[in-house]
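--- STAGE predict ---
source: upstream dedup step, 1 unique chain passed
mode: sequence only
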Amino acid sequence: MNSDLDRLHPYPFEKLAELKAGATPPSDRAHIPLSIGEPRHAPPGIVLDSLKNALPEIARYPATKGEPALREALAGWLTRRFNLPTGALDPEANVLPVSGTREALFAIAQAVVDRDTGDDQPPVVLMPNPFYQIYEGAALLAGAEPYYYPTLEDNGFLPDFDAIPEAIWERAQLLYVCSPGNPSGAVIDGSRYRKLLAQARRHDVVIAADECYSEIYFDEAQPPVGLLEVASQNGGDEPFEDVIVFHSLSKRSNLPGLRSGLVAGDAALLKRFLRYRTYQGCALPLPTQIASITAWNDEDHVRTNRAFYREKFDAVLEILEPIPGIDVRRPDAGFYLWAGVEGDERDFARRLFAEQNITVLPGRFLSRDVGGVNPGAGFVRMALVAELNDCVEAAERIRAMLS
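--- STAGE serialize ---
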């Protein structure tokens, strides 16, 4: 067996199951799960119709690169959404469909990381802390050493790339960045992204930007900036050099089970990545591709989806903001509340389950201790993915427990 498998940490939800073991919630209260970021809004009908009509195409083998029409839809959506110059993205070279961002975020490290560093030190993969645990697992199974850069409350939950030691930059090959952030919802602005681009290119580090929450935001006039958008403003012959971004229909379109997303950016990198993926065997079935074209080409259902989340955040924050014992604030984007709590957040989470039959995720299950500090300690992540009535009911129960 691959000995690197032994380096993997338990997944957050394994730890959560252990934490809840032995606790008996009240039987008269239905369980409200706020722990998993699985969208619960109805999938768009036009996409379901497209999927059903395309089912006969299941008889054909799909190409890993995807159908030309899908790649054109991906490039078109990215160009419209991130104000890219016309023709900046070549559907033949700058975009690929993927089976959801999870598998692609994992696979990119396997394709990018070069274990043969020429010395006795392993390559480094940089990632935020707290983080989506796929980044860490991908780094470990690629034979790399994870470096966790903190995203602390004192800095608005944003990364301070200047604080990364020069010695780490020199060993780094890949950097994961998540904006809007999971779990905080903090959005990296253009200025910070430009600075990161300069640092990464100076050290020949590939940036993998996880932007799968980018379409859930609260001000229709101010969508989160994207890394492609910033990179395109630099001009030059290769504006997307060492840049790859990840987007998904799971959150944007309430289609987590479709397992459909995209990667886009550096053409040379994607050419190599396609070769890796051809061997990995992860082509999207043709009905999935056809349904995805419909989803990427429609924005009405996405605006409706954002309105649902705005309504839920308004209602939940109105209930919880005045309550002592919990510190909640509207995130920049995304559907998580990254809530500060008094004491050990694991005790808060277990008590909330035992007394109110609500499940939330303790912050330290999403982060690592570095230098004696765990940036997830004292926080719980609440995913406002349930229907409005359930989210309001959960907020009322939390208020009752803390009161």
